[in-house]
Amino acid sequence: MRPFRPLSGTAWFLREDVERGSMSAWAAVTTFAMLLFVGIGVDFGGQLHAIQNTRAVAAEAARIGGQQLNAPVAIRGQGTEASPAAARAAAAAYIEGAGLTGSTAIVEGRIVVDTSATYQTKILSLVGIDSLPASGHATARIARAVEGVEQ
Question: Which of 35, 87, 91, 102 has the fewest CB atoms within 10 Å around its CB?
Fold first, then answer.
């Protein structure tokens, strides 16, 4: 390396160490793009986990709602049907206990559960995407079975 000598005029760009300590535009753009790709992987993976959780909670809430039978009718052997108020209350309590929001309904003898949550992004919030939605849906049908065969 040559010793530093102040150059005048346009000869300064001929020095070997002119770009010492500088970053090229390509390196800056590439670094930003790589961070964005990592952010997409981390945050969309987190959203996928949140979606799986909302679907699992919806399925369990529907199952629990389906276990709330109208006892007098079932005991007399007149069929199986859910007690609508008890089924909705049990499913809603399960959803609330899981820390999610959702709704429950009885439609044509089926317990229908919808759940929703919001995933707070970790890295994409740096580019303005603060949250990603997650939702789940499940239904349960009450069936009477004897020795594994539906009656």
Answer: 35
Higher pLDDT among residues 100 and 18, named by residue: 100
Output the CA angle 122-124-128, nearest 5 degrees: 120
pLDDT digits (tens, 9 = 90+) for 10-29: 555 555 555 565 677 888 88
Please tell me the predicted confidence (pLDDT) of residue 138: 97
User: How many structural domains are present in the chain?
Assistant: 1
For residue 3, being part of any structural domain is answered with: no
User: Is 5 among the domain residues?
Assistant: no
The DSSP call for residue 99 is T
- Residue 99's contacts (CB-CB under 8 Å, 6 or more residues apart) are 117
Domain assignment present for 19: no
Mean pLDDT across the chain? 84
Q: How far is CA 23 from CA 4, 17, 30, in A?
A: 21, 13, 11
Residue 49 is classified by DSSP as: H
CA distance 4 to 109: 87
